């Protein structure tokens, strides 16, 4: 792939968020400033790190001419990304966490697609993994077949891209809004659901970034309790429906209900064999929040008759 590097190419803004961690940051920034695509800016948003680590982060950014350091009070990663978006100037915007890094021609590949295929507004790809020492692992995640084209239905079921991978047009934020600061887990999934309702995705099917696996990864905080998973999916659906009041038609809401029930049915089928265990779980849902329990019951009565006759025996 050949792109002549010049300042006439569209500016790409890369937003890195960090909080109380500097150990991997230099590798992250280096992988972005060294991109084969030259016209870019890097915004490091420090979400309220303590004084010692904040000083370390700021000192690291001063080594890189394209990187600007911003310090703000601690309000969480979604709000920090929004902070960066509002201060960025690029036509295209991408995100990277402070412990991950990009392959060196990531932006070049993505900009070429966005410039030549105007029908696509988000370009994503595969991610690889490295351990804490940076050694590449065998696992690669692509979500092939689930994040290429118009994929709203697919994103209703599962998050189909890591936030470290996509590059998207600035206009996307103007249409669907920013990251939802009420989410501390799955904020990227909540955002990509809205994006996928309107915009077409392009998957390169190539590894574009590497995610570092270590003990302090935020994703490690996701609970394995089925109730916690139910509550997360319910929160995601509530947020989507609220946003959809100004965007969805009646058929969209029906589709969201049907897929929501499919997710809950899977929880019941896979995690709770036997009628009594299923009833006990539904009881936990009611005990946690009666409104959620009533909604669960509505979905069961509306869409779950077939499951009751086949799967609850």
What does this structure look like?
With 313 residues, this protein is an alpha/beta fold. It contains twelve helices and nine strands. Strands 1, 2, 3, 4, 5, 6, 7, 8 and 9 form a nine-stranded mixed β-sheet that branches. Helix 7 (187-198) packs parallel to helix 8 (226-244) and helix 9 crosses helix 11 (290-303). It starts with 11 loop residues before the first strand and ends with a helix.
Derived structural class: alpha/beta
CA gyration radius, whole angstroms: 21 Å
Taking the alpha carbons of the first and last residues, their distance comes to 57 Å
Mean pLDDT level:
92
The share of residues in helices is 40-55%
Count the E strands.
9
Low-pLDDT ranges: 1-6, 218-222, 306-313
How is this fold's topology laid out?
Elements lengths: L11 E7 L6 H9 L6 E8 L3 H11 L5 E6 L4 H11 L4 E6 L3 E2 L3 H11 L3 E11 L5 E6 L10 H6 L9 E3 L1 H6 L10 H12 L1 E13 L13 H19 L5 H22 L3 H14 L1 H14 L1 H6 L3
Parallel strand pairs: 1-2, 1-4, 2-3, 6-9
Antiparallel strand pairs: 4-8, 5-9, 6-7, 6-8
């Amino acid at each position: 792939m050949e792109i002549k590097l010049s300042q006439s190419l569209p500016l790409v803004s890369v937003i890195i968020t960090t909080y109380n961690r500097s150990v991997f940051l230099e590798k992250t920034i280096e992988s972005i400033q060294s991109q084969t695509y030259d016209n870019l800016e890097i915004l490091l948003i420090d979400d309220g790190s303590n004084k010692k680590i904040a000083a370390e982060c700021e000192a690291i950014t001063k080594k890189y001419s394209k990187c600007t350091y911003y310090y703000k009070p601690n309000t969480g990663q979604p709000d920090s990304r929004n902070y960066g978006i509002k201060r960025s100037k690029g036509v295209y915007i991408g995100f990277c966490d402070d412990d991950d890094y990009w392959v060196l021609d990531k932006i070049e590949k993505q900009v070429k697609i966005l410039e030549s295929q105007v029908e696509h507004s988000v370009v994503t790809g595969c991610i690889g993994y490295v351990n804490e020492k940076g050694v590449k692992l065998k696992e690669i995640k692509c979500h092939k077949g689930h994040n290429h084209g118009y994929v709203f239905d697919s994103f209703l079921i599962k998050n189909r891209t890591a936030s470290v991978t996509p590059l998207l047009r600035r206009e996307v934020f103007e249409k669907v809004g920013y990251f939802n600061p009420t989410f501390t887990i799955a904020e990227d999934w909540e955002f990509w659901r809205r994006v996928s309702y309107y915009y077409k995705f392009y998957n390169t099917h190539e590894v574009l970034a590497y995610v570092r696996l270590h003990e302090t990864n935020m994703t490690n905080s996701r609970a394995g309790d089925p109730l916690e998973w139910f509550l997360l999916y319910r929160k995601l659906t509530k947020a989507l429906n609220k946003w959809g009041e100004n965007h969805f038609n009646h058929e969209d809401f029906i589709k969201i209900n049907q897929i929501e029930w499919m997710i809950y049915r899977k929880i019941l089928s896979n995690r709770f064999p036997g009628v009594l265990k299923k009833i006990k779980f539904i009881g936990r849902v009611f005990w946690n929040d009666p409104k959620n329990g009533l909604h669960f019951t509505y979905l069961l009565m509306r869409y779950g008759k077939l499951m009751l006759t086949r799967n609850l025996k």
